[in-house]
Automatic annotation (TrEMBL):
Residues 25-193 form the Glycerol-3-phosphate dehydrogenase NAD-dependent N-terminal domain. Substrate binds at residues 143, 292-293. Keywords: NAD, Oxidoreductase. GO terms for biological process: carbohydrate metabolic process; glycerol-3-phosphate catabolic process. Pfam families: NAD_Gly3P_dh_C, NAD_Gly3P_dh_N. It is an enzyme of class 1 (oxidoreductase). One of its GO terms (cellular component) is cytosol. This is Glycerol-3-phosphate dehydrogenase [NAD(+)]. It comes from the Eukaryota. One of its GO terms (molecular function) is NAD binding. Residues 216-345 form the Glycerol-3-phosphate dehydrogenase NAD-dependent C-terminal domain.
């Protein structure tokens, strides 16, 4: 299936198989449902494509599984992440590792996909001398933003600043379980250079997971964060029992605010990211009908429970990103005096 090409698809990357590149080694930092799904794709590709080290390591926060042993041992013996991605077979060349420094040893391509609340300690560890390979590159599949007073930062920017390596961003209409079960979907990768486009395309692209690289790291990263705020609103609509008309209005207004916010505060980004690519409108639709933020927001209305309670009861240890992002976005708009420009976010 040929990718859908627009004028903003700056890169139609040549396969890494066809380029004179050194052997690449992939490491995945994060083992939640989305991290495991991405690690599965990367491991399958590493086993089949030239130019990749066969083994893909995945960082797992070690814990004891009652009656079974340590989580890493369970994953490596059963080739299944029973906690976050049950009933999905994982490739034998995907290896769960509990120590972060061991996961990234000699890795040239590092996938970061931890809840954004945990990113700071991860970066502290990775920034220590000798931990990362000197030629490493990173990609962020983390949904969220960092707000400090009247300043806002994307996670790829923070990763680049802290680690001193180029960082891309991955986002799209990608429900983890559907991706892991090889249901067809697309994703968008915002890249800083053609080399990054070629490498990450080779890591993730497959017949059932089509990758479209574009030169808009900030746009892809911001769309992945802000769509979770709109998904909360969609969940409120569902919880109050309103119908499709109301939900469609919320999504239209939300998409406009997502694009306007990104262009206002990250002017080098492109509005086409939101209208033409999976990271924009497609991701918003998927999350607003089937994501965890929508699910918890609906339950918030119907049960009166706090989001902290609902996260514990409904998400099986996963983190609810939209609530934190909504609060951070509001604080940022308040600090900039721009609340009136974004009534839905406010």
């Amino acid at each position: 299936m040929a990718p859908y090409v627009t004028e903003f698809d700056l890169y139609e990357p040549q396969s890494a198989d066809d380029r004179d590149l050194p052997t690449q080694k992939v490491a995945v930092i994060g083992s939640g449902s989305w991290g495991t799904a991405l690690a599965r794709i990367a491991a399958l590709n590493a086993a089949e494509k030239k130019g990749f080290d066969h083994e893909v390591r995945m960082w797992v926060r070690e814990r004891e599984i009652p009656g079974q042993g340590l989580l890493t041992e369970v994953i490596n013996s059963t080739h299944e992440n029973h906690r976050y991605l049950p009933d999905v077979s994982l490739p034998h060349n995907l290896v769960a590792v509990p120590e972060l420094k061991d996961v990234v040893k000699d890795a040239t391509l590092i996938v970061l996909v931890v809840p954004h609340q945990f990113l700071t300690p991860v970066l502290e560890e990775l920034s220590k001398p000798g931990v990362l390979a000197p030629n490493a590159r990173a990609i962020s599949a983390i949904k969220g933003v960092e707000v400090v007073g009247a300043e806002i930062y994307t996670f790829p920017w923070l990763i680049e600043k802290k680690l001193g390596i180029p960082c891309s961003a991955l986002g799209g209409a990608n429900i983890a379980m559907e991706v892991a079960q090889s249901e067809f979907c697309e994703t968008t990768i915002g890249v800083p250079s053609p080399d990054d486009a070629a490498l990450w395309h080779a890591v993730f692209d497959s017949p059932m997971f089509r990758v479209h690289p574009i030169e808009d790291v900030a746009g892809v990263s911001l769309s992945g964060a802000l769509k979770n705020v709109v998904a909360l609103a969609a969940g409120f609509v569902d919880g109050m029992g309103y119908g499709g008309n109301t939900k469609a209005a919320i999504l239209r207004i939300g998409l406009l605010e997502m694009a306007a916010f990104t262009k206002e505060f990250f002017p080098s980004s492109s509005s086409l990211t939101f209208s033409h690519h999976s990271a924009g409108v497609a991701d918003l639709i998927t999350t607003s009908f089937g994501g965890r933020n929508r699910k918890c927001a609906e339950a918030f209305i119907k049960t009166g429970k706090t989001f902290a309670q609902l996260e514990h009861e409904l998400l099986n240890g996963q983190k609810l990103q939209g609530v934190v992002t909504a609060e951070e976005t509001f604080r940022f708009l308040q600090a900039r005096g721009r609340e009136e420009g974004y009534p839905l976010f406010t």
